[in-house]
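U., I forgot to send this yesterday:
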Amino acid sequence: MTDRLARIFPYLLIASAILPLVYVSGLVYPYVAPKTFLLQSIGIIALAIFAYLALSGRPFFYGRLQNWFSWIPLALLTVAYVSSVFGVDFYRSFWGLFDRGDSLLTSTVITIFFYLILISADRQLLERLVKTIAVVAGIVAGIAVLQWFTTTLGGKALFLPPVTGRIGSTLGNAAFLAGYLSMSLFIILLVLRDAVGVWRNVFKIAAVLSVLAILFAATRGTILALIVTGIVALAYVARSGEEKVRRGARYGLLALAVFAGIFFVFRAELAQVQFEPVSRIASISISDGTVASRLFVWQNVGTEALQRPWQGYGAEHIAHLFNKIYDPSNIVEQWFDRSHNAFLDYFVQYGIFGLGLYLALIGAFAVSAWRLYRNEAPSILNYGFLFLLFITTYSVQNFFVFDTPHSLWLLYAMFASLLVLLDDSAESALQIRTPLFVSVSASVVILLAVIPTIVFPLYSNILLTKGYLLHLVDVKKANAYFERGLAVNTYADLEYGYQAYDMYTAHQAVQLKGDDLVSAYQYALSLLTANFKKYPYDARTATYLGHVMDTAPPKIKIDDAFDREVLARAIELSPLRAQAWYMTANISLRKADVLPVGSKERESYYREAVRVLETYSEKEPTLPVPKYILATLYYALGDKVTAKKWADEALPLYTEIDIAAARPAVKYYIAIGDWRSAVRFLADLVEDNPSDYDVLYDLAKVTYLAGDPTVALRIVEKLRKENPALLETDQNFLNAITAYEQSKK
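Result:
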């Protein structure tokens, strides 16, 4: 058995290189979760087999651990654990979530892979490893290119993963795809150097496909990283190659400079080009929404991180800081668990020591690559130089993006390979021999870790998926699947809460009725309430729970005291997030709505809501939504002057379609008879949801009142074809528009 395990062991070290190809439907986050489970399980199995082999007397290259660089990954992992123990929540830090796959557990497994490769790899294993990476990267890139062409041509290939937004191939995300391929590109070039025959053509195709896939993914950080790396490569060739090659490189640098000049001169025009890689690069500016959002996050998250510069906040708790600094007028994304800067992420999570060790890891990689470069004749395809380009690309792109398990595994695998290539003691393998029961026991104990770390979470994910698929068809059965999944008692409970919220507010509250609706509401409420108590630092859970209560079915009595507690915590954790403020105002408005019009008590509840919204509007003066809501409330209170003041302040702030602002704006402008303004906002509502015929009919009526019966008639003609019964709901308008229609004949 020992010999058989010894033959299997090297293939387990290589197996992780195949994971970027894995895509499994039937799981929540089918691009991420299966890869994470497989990476963790392969790592645990490999460690179990290593323990058995090592304790059974099989030789390994322990002497390679004498290289001080080899201890950096372990030191970084140790700092990560210490920071997480003293951070926000070690439980969340260790396990993470399905949607990212990152966690201390994943970092531990990747670090284990580093050491297993380092002390066991020989030249043959390294050759197989890099060839596998190159082939897999070529296939991933080929799928991405096919996705781009089929999407561009308006078709859809059934054998390709679905595309939402930019192409993501089997990684599901354009940034993840580009980051992975930009690193593996240099592994392809490394393998291409010595390839012959058919394999040489295979790796040439893989390299071309990788470049095209990176371009089509249109991830600006990666494209900029490759441009920087390309300049470095051309500069190197321009001064150290043969004369003819040097001349070509110099012309290449000159061409790049000219191209860059033309690009900046015509940047505004290029930003409008219907080719996303060009338009996205050309649109980079301080005023660009995404760029401005990133800069705001970097500045403010960095400032918050300085509150705990030494110990950090622990793994997977960047969202804790993001929620504190969230400002809807400056940030595009609603919920963020990364700063989109790996260096800042390491500082936030693990403090100064974590960032220092991460920089030391990159520096050690570069130094090792330089040493390898000096071991052979200078050339652009020198192994060491390709590794230098690899780490340059990784470092530059990670200033704009963040590590994923695949990019981090690739970095560690190549770092281990570098140290192996530099090792001069290839023959000094050492042996450790213990009694058989010791080696077997150690291996079994490690192997059993697969059950709580992989089997149980995977089962929870499967049950979560089954429940999600049934949440409209059979609410009771969906809830039962959720209960079974939660009974496994894994870290998936937070993810279950997020999914229950999405199911209820986005689908069930809109489409279900009667007992099914009540059952769906009560389950979402109970699940989010449990998470609210278990994760008191999670602003997302608090906000979601408040929203569920805010959308309770009719006749369901809401515990207003608990609702206020929930929303108060949501505001405390994320002070400028609008939803919690609006829902706090809604508590008073719900009470007012059941009271007689004109009563003093009703007015007092309206004024409570007004105070809440005025407080928020002072904190966040650039949003039109609270101002339009205040305009409607003051109008309802009979204070038309103040209502107009708030509406006049809101109007210049409404610069793009904002449904949350358009709805109260329509209500206000219809109330005061400003039909032209009402038309503008109703048109935005229709543009956002053309199938909402009630709003479309309102637009027809208001357009008629605004003095444009021709346009109103066109809307009516559309409704006659698509929803004629709706026209009968307002006979007065129907008579008026029919009379106008007859007058034109």
